[in-house]
Amino acid sequence: LDALVAAAGWSAGALTPLGALAAWAVGTAILHGAGWGGGAVLLAFFVGSSAVGRLGAPRPVSDLDPKGERRDHRQVLANGGAAAAGALLVADSPAALWLVAGGLATAAADTWATAWGASSPTLPRHLLSARAGPTGTSGGITALGTGGAGEGALVTALAGRPWTDGRFVL
Predict the structure, then answer these.
(1) What is the pLDDT of residues 16-44, one digit of tens each?
(2) Under 8 Å CB-to-CB from 16, ≥6 apart: which residues?
């Protein structure tokens, strides 16, 4: 199943070939450690973040950025590596799903905030200095991006809810 999802991501142009291999490894680790609930959270993260990432103006493929919008192995491991490792460390315990949901909700918040914030009509303000800066400035936030972060985290984390046996209440 992981291989099919990774291949579909590659075929859809969301992953580079190495990104697809990394996604396969991350997916296998998450399914092994956190079961179907972890897989549901991972799928919600991947589908949601891929869709949101394509909402803005697409980054064209160029000599400077040959992968364009496709995610490579570094990005896959940065977003899902901690969740996969956590799931394996506490495999088959309720904590595995919590680690996957928390890790991937955090990654989704970052991804969705970036995508939504880039389309904000207002300039971002630096988190510490409150000075306005150009879109894409590290540490810059907008109200739209902050809303996107909350929605991304919520959508991703809630995908694991049916597998929790009522262990948490929202």
Answers:
(1) 999 999 999 999 999 999 999 999 999 99
(2) 10, 67, 70, 71, 72, 73
